[in-house]
Amino acid sequence: MTFSAGRKIIFDMDGVITSEERYWDAAALTAWELLFSVNYLGLKPLATLPPFKTVLSAPEIALVRRAVFCEDKVISFFKQQALNSNWDLAFLTFAFQFVSLLCDLASRGIFLNGGVEVWGAKGITAAKLSLIRSFLPPDERDRWEPSFESVLGSWPQGAKGAGLAAKLCRLLPPRYAQILGDCSSTSLSPLWKDVREIFQQWYLGEQKFTEIFGRKAGASGKEGLIYREEPIIEAPRLKETLSRLKGLGWELGIATGRPLSELLSPLERMEIRQYFHPGSVVTYDEVVKAENALRGEFPNISLGKPHPFPFLKAYWGEEKNDRQLAAPGPPLPQRRMCWVVGDAMADLLAAREAGACFIGVLTGQSGACNKEIFAREGAEVVLPDITFLPDFIAKYS
Ligand SMILES: [Mg+2]
Questions:
Q1: Based on the domain organization, do 143 and 276 belong to the same domain?
Q2: Less packed terminus of the chain by CB within 10 Å, N or C?
Q3: How much distance in Å is there from the Cα of 247 to the middle of ligand 1?
């Protein structure tokens, strides 16, 4: 085995370099839209939340997020289960309420009309949620209220990352067993694909969504949370940090769950794109491409973090092919040649599997609460933020 990929530091993006706040807003608004918009489930609006609309003020967005994620406790919970994708966060948050509604009705002997012939053998789509709404007895539609807090206490034990969706499906009453589709990998569920679409419309806004994807957004008027993004570290300090690391002889890479289209604009806005080696930047796009190419051989393939694939691909670049990096027993970097900087459990688990040294930073969602758990799970060091990195890494340079 050769180790010609050299010495690299691979960064996670959100919670390390960029803020994840607007993605969490998008996830909350997506779940809220699916529950309360008449285009979908159309439940009776909660007295504490605005009725569904596409243009919201910052305080209204904050109100929806506080309610849907219970002061962000739901986000922390899923992060601790190594859930990395905010599309999964939106999907699981909505799907949990949807499953709870079906279970509640079934426990009282109320079953919806239709079945596979209505929602399809591969599972329900978002558009068909309005059909579900039409099957609900009107008093049930107005009576049932989501309990956002319940996601924290009712979740089946022992599930991690992509396995959470499969666990959720097992809670469904038998006659609805296929309603969420094949949940062995969330991206196989038609509802998950629609959740991602609605999420992207909130995040990008109607105009940018249409520019990127070449199709109209479902509900018009969304302005785009991307325009409200704020950096974690001011650009000049960030540039100085990255420049010092390069000066110490390290090549820098990125492994992020963001699509490339959502990575380049913040990198360019902060003027830091040139610090990262293009062959060491791995986004959602590369992960999906590899999953699609390898699905024939590995049907339940899921290569996003906490799978080590994104970090291994960022480390090896073109030197190893996707199959080598995705299959069991992938080629690992030589000890201390690959360092991973992340803010979440999914990063730590993926780095550990990738044979990389993990550096935890406390600028992510759980903040300082992660310090102990990172240390316990084998982080080499835990730093307040990435500006502390050059002084630490100098010892290994
Ligand atoms: Mg992160």
A1: no
A2: N
A3: 25
Task: Give 128-135's long-range contacts (Cβ < 8 A, gap of 24+).
Answer: 129/34, 129/40, 129/41, 129/98, 130/38, 130/39, 130/40, 130/41, 130/42, 132/41, 133/38, 133/40, 133/41, 133/42
Please state whether beta strands 338-342 and 276-282 pair in parallel, antiparallel, or not at all (unpaired): unpaired
pTM, rounded to two decimals = 0.84
Predicted confidence (pLDDT) per residue in 128-184, tens digit: 998 888 888 888 888 899 999 998 876 666 677 777 888 888 889 888 888 988 877
Identify whether 221 is part of a domain.
yes
CA 15 to ligand 1 center in whole angstroms: 5
364 Cα to the center of ligand 1, angstroms: 6
Same domain, residue pair 210 and 269: no
Same domain, 200 and 244: no
Distance 308 CA to ligand 1 centre (A): 15
Q: How far does residue 380's CA lie from ligand 1's centre (Å)?
A: 18
From the CA of 343, how far away is ligand 1's center (Å)? 5
Residue 4 to residue 7: CA distance in whole angstroms? 9
Residue range of the domain that includes 28: 21-226
- CB count within 10 Å of CB 270 equals 18
Q: Which residues lie below 8 Å from residue 189, measured CB to CB, with a gap of 6+?
A: 91, 123, 165, 180, 181, 182, 183
